[in-house]
UniProtKB/TrEMBL annotation:
This is Heme ABC exporter ATP-binding protein CcmA. It comes from Anaerobacillus alkaliphilus. One of its GO terms (biological process) is cytochrome complex assembly. Belongs to the ABC transporter superfamily. SUPFAM superfamilies: P-loop containing nucleoside triphosphate hydrolases. Keywords: ATP-binding, Cytochrome c-type biogenesis, Hydrolase, Nucleotide-binding, Transport. Signal peptide: none annotated. PROSITE patterns: ABC_TRANSPORTER_2. The gene is ccmA. Its EC number is 3.6.3.41. InterPro entries: AAA+_ATPase, ABC_transporter-like_ATP-bd, ABC_transporter_ATP-binding, ABC_transptr_haem_export_CcmA, P-loop_NTPase.
Length: 233
């Protein structure tokens, strides 16, 4: 479903990605691990259409992102450190706004349902500027899935969350997987990676150095392989 060919990203004299070739099948759940500066977030942003590669291509279902970016972006849900929420709006208003951008039908009903699903129904009419980090991330989760995306991209989504919010996020990931969505998650949290993903890709110095399949709940294997690769630095 998702394919990158020869992705290179440079910023000034610094090479971030070095000819990355990656194929992810429809319905796969993939965690991307690696030390800081390995290129993890960069490739996620390029796949999301938030950053342009210096050279190389991204394909989704055989369509080139450069030529069909508008149609492709409608199929993607993106969750990062930044909530992308408007702080003067309420959870309901934020979700209605983003839902309308994606052309979601019955948006008010769906927005209310999602606010309740993430456990913030009591705060549905409060401006999000007063929310804690965990509360903001809960609404951001709802924002990312308001349009039932085929592809979910997560950039270190568990950072700063309490245990209840982590559990909620994992439930959302597993639910979307069960519905056939493709999931790619950049993370430093090995435990969450093996709980929610079946495949782990390890980046180092802008390249893929390990591609491990069938890793669900196999924390020992992922930790060992990661340690071996980082030791090569």
């Amino acid at each position: 479903m998702i394919e990158t060919k020869g992705l290179i990203k440079t910023i000034g004299d610094k090479v971030i990605l070095r000819g990355v070739n990656l194929t992810i099948k429809k319905g796969e759940s993939v965690a991307i691990l690696g030390p800081n500066g390995a290129g993890k977030s960069t490739i996620l942003k390029i796949i999301a259409g938030l950053m342009k590669a210096t050279s190389g291509d991204v394909y989704i279902d055989g369509l080139n992102f450069k030529k069909d970016s508008y149609e492709m972006k409608k199929r993607i849900g993106f969750l990062a450190h930044n909530s992308f929420l408007y702080d003067h709006l309420t959870p309901l208003e934020n979700l209605k706004f983003f839902g309308k951008l994606y052309g979601v039908s019955n948006i008010e009903e769906k927005a209310k349902e999602l606010v309740n699903e993430v456990g913030l129904g009591f705060f549905i009419h409060d401006p999000v500027r007063s929310f804690s980090r965990g509360m903001l991330q809960r609404i951001a989760i709802a924002r990312a899935i308001i349009h039932d995306p085929e592809i979910l991209l997560f950039d270190e989504p568990h950072t700063g969350l309490d245990q209840e919010a982590i559990k909620l996020l994992n439930e959302v990931i597993l639910k979307m997987k069960a519905n056939g969505s493709t999931v790619i998650m950049v993370t430093h949290d090995f435990q969450q990676a093996v709980q929610t993903c079946d495949r782990v890709i390890i980046f180092r110095n802008g390249k893929i150095v390990e591609d491990l399949d069938n890793v669900k709940n196999n924390l020992a294997l992922v930790t060992a392989r990661y340690t071996e690769q980082v030791a090569c630095l």
